[in-house]
């Protein structure tokens, strides 16, 4: 209990630090630390899947994205933001609003009614019928597979916009070789190890914590490391292959989800007797495709070379 | 008060802290980080509060997993736009009032 | 025929599957065959829509458990009268915008490649929202819709569009988080997420009330209801015309649709008349502020965008006119509110497409450039003119019928103050629309310097405008459709 209060305090303190620190770089570093603390919190909330996801996606990928963006927003060249904060009046209102929300939320949390429906019991009862043994995988790919389908579409949209803005003005991504020679050498055995971890996470997902999203995050991290070290990524420069790779996850999900529908059954009901196989195939395709998508989120950001800074752009 | 509820309360605090940062700051990166903090608070409330009522529950955990992925997609999309915006205008924040957007772009066309 | 319709498997999920496949195809193939792919999928979607209308007429409301999992474990789709109306309007407007874009985008070769997948994702997410009855699924739908729409705004990569897209994105993100916070409280308190199941269960404790307030706040921000509308005019005014049309006609309506479902279906026991009056007051503010700002604009597309702010205000009248009033008054408000949404969707899409054509023709964005349009480009002006009739609420348009129903409802429940809003708003819209007409008939040159847009561009706008007009003449059918949702629903 005391540990929990301490962890909660550290979490709030770090969050306040993220918002208040003057130096933007330190703020981003604190943000990554916040993500790692969140992963610990998820362990305490008995959500190991979320701990894995938070560490890989919340802290890892989001942190890399922020650091990378920071590198491209040159603070010396940026027209100085004269006001860091809003005008005093607006700031005062914001404080009042936040204070009010805190109070109301506190009351709402204390006053929250006991639910009349006990979904965890229903999940347990139906777990056998879903074809997988891990309840979270069952929720994600069976009971609420529709959410997951749309969520993959959400990532795809983000990547599409990234691609659209990147190629709309023929910018090449900056060459980002930032790794030390030592780390470069370590990659030789680090990369195969990461691949194995990804496959393990994917496989274990149907029994225990793990699954497509966590595995994909590891794959994406692999690709980011390879990109940063200049290691060639197979098929990387082939735009056509990239496209196919991006769409294969959602495509296979849709196709397999429609098999039962076309044969007179229900959309997203996996074919009878093939539930587990279908889920594994979809998860495999998702891992590959999501890995590529998550990597593309990093890669597709428009990163103009310094020389092009003076160019007027498209307007 | 069980462990789950402590974290639900933490989530509440985190949400309003994030909200404050989101409104208060003008730098787009800082506002985006505030958005992510708010999101984390929201996820903590969802998992913590429902589990404080009926024990470990796979459904909110799965919902939060979806939420985390959606949040990182939104963050990535925002970063893409911020970079392009910075590339075109040299600004790291949006102009305070909407009408001055046009001034920014006409200045940029001259330069 | 009827037996055939009954035997056809339920087609509901195809409304989402088809546009997703479209997005994937156009993404994988790039610019190759883009028009063919679009044509095939639009045809399939329109056909699905038609069959669904037939099925609905025959069988009544349709429900569909995804993956064969029943609520509360699984997610349920439902097609009632209102959802069917929304799906149909979405098909019509998006098809017309696609037709417009297929020609208009010839000037934007780079944007073309990514326009089509984003359009398909937008269509998919709209259908997700119309059909979904699950609060969290609606959140995912809202995010998919928001990100696709932001992408469409930013598509040209130009400074103004980017600034608008960023502002839009930040508003949308804040809105969805507020909504999600509400969902978190609802799930914790009730253990389920299905809207029909929740209706009747909700109680007015602090937790539920805060949940509803947060969700309302988020949805109002996403619908750009005054005074949370700041992001809308630049986003809608600076995007490409087919995108502006889509955003104003449909995208902002999606969050409003959820808001109505939340208030008048699930939360009817919790919401109080004073809150409903407050929502109406926000609407009144939107009508007057939006109208005033529209009149002050010098750019044609910005004028049309502020007109959207004003027109969205009328929608908000549905809350005070339905909460705590007699069933007759509520019935009138229900039909009038939805009819206003549909009429505005058709007319505003037509108006934005026409405005895009006019800007293309005069090669400049401001209203002064319109001098001589009446003489040299009567056909391009026709779409704008016809759409204006519905926006102003003149008979026989759909806009007139909608306001007429709202007015009758206000009379029936004795809330005369909303009559002032209806009358004043109509007068204001007449002022800013006639400002445009007037410029078109100033003839200070004998030379036709205009670039003449292709026939297809004008046709797509005129078709939508004619639909908006005929909605008033044939309003009995949509009214009957909308009425069933009220009697069948929890109201």
TrEMBL record, chain A:
Residues 186-271 form the Na+/H+ antiporter MnhB subunit-related protein domain. It is found in: Cell membrane. Its main location: membrane. It comes from the Bacteria. Signal peptide: none annotated. Residues 11-74 form the MrpA C-terminal/MbhD domain. This is Uncharacterized MnhB-related membrane protein. Belongs to the CPA3 antiporters (TC 2.A.63) subunit B family. InterPro entries: CPA3_antiporter_subunitB (IPR050622), MnhB (IPR007182), MrpA_C/MbhD (IPR025383), Nuo/plastoQ_OxRdtase_6_NuoJ (IPR042106). The chain crosses the membrane at residues 6-21, 28-45, 51-70, 90-109, 148-165, 186-205, 211-228, 240-259, 279-298. GO terms for cellular component: plasma membrane. It is a multi-pass membrane protein. The lineage of its organism: Bacteria, Pseudomonadati, Pseudomonadota, Gammaproteobacteria, Oceanospirillales. Keywords: Cell membrane, Membrane, Transmembrane, Transmembrane helix.
Automatic annotation (TrEMBL), chain B:
The chain crosses the membrane at residues 6-25, 32-50, 62-82. It is found in: Cell membrane. It is a multi-pass membrane protein. Its main location: membrane. Keywords: Cell membrane, Membrane, Transmembrane, Transmembrane helix. The keyword Transmembrane helix applies. GO terms for cellular component: plasma membrane. Belongs to the CPA3 antiporters (TC 2.A.63) subunit C family. This is Multicomponent Na+:H+ antiporter subunit C. The lineage of its organism: Bacteria, Pseudomonadati, Pseudomonadota, Gammaproteobacteria, Oceanospirillales.
Automatic annotation (TrEMBL), chain C:
This is Formate hydrogenlyase subunit 3/Multisubunit Na+/H+ antiporter, MnhD subunit. The chain crosses the membrane at residues 12-33, 40-59, 79-102, 114-132, 138-156, 168-190, 210-232, 244-264, 270-291, 303-325, 337-361, 373-395, 415-434, 455-477. It is a multi-pass membrane protein. Residues 132-427 form the NADH:quinone oxidoreductase/Mrp antiporter transmembrane domain. It is found in: Endomembrane system; Membrane. GO terms for cellular component: endomembrane system; membrane. It comes from the Bacteria. InterPro entries: CPA3_Na-H_Antiporter_A (IPR050616), NADH_UbQ_OxRdtase (IPR003918), ND/Mrp_TM (IPR001750). GO terms for biological process: ATP synthesis coupled electron transport. GO terms for molecular function: lyase activity; NADH dehydrogenase (ubiquinone) activity. Keywords: Lyase, Membrane, Transmembrane, Transmembrane helix. PANTHER family: NA(+)/H(+) ANTIPORTER SUBUNIT, NA(+)_H(+) ANTIPORTER SUBUNIT A.
């Amino acid at each position: 209990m005391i540990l929990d209060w301490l962890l909660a305090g550290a979490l709030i303190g770090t969050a306040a630090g993220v918002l208040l620190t003057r130096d933007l770089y330190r703020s981003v570093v604190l943000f990554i630390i916040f993500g790692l603390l969140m992963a610990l919190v998820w362990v305490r909330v008995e959500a190991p899947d979320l701990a894995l996801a938070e560490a890989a996606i919340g802290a890892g990928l989001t942190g890399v994205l922020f650091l990378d963006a920071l590198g491209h927003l040159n603070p010396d060249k940026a027209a100085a933001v004269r006001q860091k904060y809003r005008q005093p009046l607006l700031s005062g209102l914001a404080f009042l609003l936040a204070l009010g929300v805190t109070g109301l939320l506190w009351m709402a949390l204390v006053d929250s009614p006991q639910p009349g429906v006990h979904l965890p019991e229903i999940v347990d009862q139906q777990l056998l019928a879903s074809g997988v043994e891990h309840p979270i995988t069952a929720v994600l790919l069976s009971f609420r597979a529709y959410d997951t389908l749309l969520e993959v579409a959400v990532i795809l949209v983000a990547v599409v916009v990234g691609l659209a803005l990147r190629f709309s003005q023929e910018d090449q991504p900056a060459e980002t070789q930032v790794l030390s020679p030592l780390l470069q050498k370590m990659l030789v055995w680090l990369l195969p190890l990461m691949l194995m971890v990804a496959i393990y996470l994917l496989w274990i997902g149907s029994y225990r914590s793990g699954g497509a999203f966590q595995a994909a995050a590891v794959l994406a991290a692999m690709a980011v490391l390879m990109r940063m070290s200049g290691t060639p990524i197979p098929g990387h420069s082939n735009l056509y292959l990239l496209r196919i790779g991006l769409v294969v996850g959602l495509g296979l999900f849709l196709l397999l989800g429609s098999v039962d529908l076309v044969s007179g059954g229900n959309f997203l009901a996996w074919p009878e007797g093939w539930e587990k196989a279908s889920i594994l195939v979809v998860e495999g395709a998702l891992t590959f495709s999501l890995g590529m998508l998550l990597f593309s989120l990093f890669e597709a950001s428009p990163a103009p070379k310094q020389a092009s800074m003076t160019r007027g752009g498209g307007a | 008060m069980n462990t789950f509820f402590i974290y639900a309360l933490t989530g509440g605090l985190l949400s309003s802290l994030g909200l404050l940062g989101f409104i208060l700051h003008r730098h787009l990166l800082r506002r985006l980080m505030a958005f992510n903090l708010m999101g984390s608070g929201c996820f903590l409330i969802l998992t913590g509060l429902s589990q404080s009522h009926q024990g470990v529950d796979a459904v909110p955990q799965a919902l939060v997993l979806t939420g985390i992925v959606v949040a990182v997609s939104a963050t990535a999309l925002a970063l893409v736009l911020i970079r392009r915006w910075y590339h075109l205008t040299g600004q790291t924040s949006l102009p305070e009032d909407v009408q001055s957007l046009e001034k920014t772009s006409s200045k940029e066309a001259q330069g | 025929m009827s037996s055939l319709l009954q035997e056809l498997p339920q087609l509901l999920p195809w409304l989402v599957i088809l546009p997703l496949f479209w997005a994937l195809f156009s993404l994988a193939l790039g610019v190759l065959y883009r028009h063919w792919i679009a044509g095939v999928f639009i045809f399939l979607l329109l056909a699905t829509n038609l069959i669904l209308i037939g099925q609905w007429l025959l069988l009544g409301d349709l429900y569909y458990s995804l993956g064969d999992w029943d609520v509360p474990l699984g997610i349920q789709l439902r097609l009632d009268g209102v959802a069917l109306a929304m799906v149909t309007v979405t098909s019509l407007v998006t098809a017309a915008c696609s037709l417009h874009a297929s020609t208009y985008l010839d000037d934007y070769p780079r944007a073309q490649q990514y326009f089509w997948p984003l359009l398909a994702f937008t269509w998919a997410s709209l259908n997700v929202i119309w059909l979904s009855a699950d609060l969290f699924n609606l959140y995912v739908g809202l995010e998919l819709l928001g990100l696709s729409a932001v992408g469409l705004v930013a598509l040209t990569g130009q400074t103004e569009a980017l600034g608008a897209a960023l502002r839009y994105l930040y508003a949308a993100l804040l809105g969805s988080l507020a909504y999600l916070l509400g969902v978190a409280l609802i799930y914790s308190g009730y253990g389920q997420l299905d809207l029909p199941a929740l209706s009747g269960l909700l109680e007015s404790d602090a937790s539920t009330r805060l949940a509803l307030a947060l969700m309302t706040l988020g949805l109002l921000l996403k619908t750009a209801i005054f005074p949370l509308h700041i992001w809308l005019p630049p986003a809608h005014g600076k995007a490409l015309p087919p995108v502006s049309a889509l955003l104003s006609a449909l995208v902002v309506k999606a969050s409003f649709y959820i808001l109505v479902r939340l208030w008048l279906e699930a939360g009817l026991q919790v919401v109080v008349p004073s809150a409903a009056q407050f929502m109406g007051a926000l609407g009144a503010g939107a009508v007057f502020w939006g109208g005033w700002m529209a009149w002050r604009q010098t750019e044609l597309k910005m004028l049309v965008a502020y007109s959207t702010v004003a027109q969205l205000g009328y929608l908000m009248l549905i809350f005070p006119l339905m909460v705590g009033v007699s069933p007759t008054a509520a019935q009138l408000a229900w039909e009038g509110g939805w009819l206003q949404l549909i009429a505005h969707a058709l007319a505003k899409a037509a108006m934005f497409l026409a405005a895009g054509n006019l800007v293309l023709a005069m090669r400049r964005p401001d209203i002064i450039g319109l001098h001589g349009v009446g003489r040299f480009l009567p056909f391009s002006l026709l779409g704008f003119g016809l759409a204006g009739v519905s926006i102003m609420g003149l008979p026989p348009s759909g806009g007139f019928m909608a306001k007429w129903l709202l007015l009758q409802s206000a009379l029936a429940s004795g809330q005369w103050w909303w009559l002032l809003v209806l009358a004043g708003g109509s007068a204001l819209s007449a002022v800013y629309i006639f400002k445009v007409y007037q410029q078109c008939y100033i003839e200070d040159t004998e030379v036709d310097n205009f670039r003449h847009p292709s026939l297809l561009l004008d046709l797509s706008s005129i078709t939508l405008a004619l639909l908006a007009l005929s909605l008033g003449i044939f309003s009995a059918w949509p009214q009957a459709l909308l009425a069933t949702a009220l009697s069948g629903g929890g109201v």
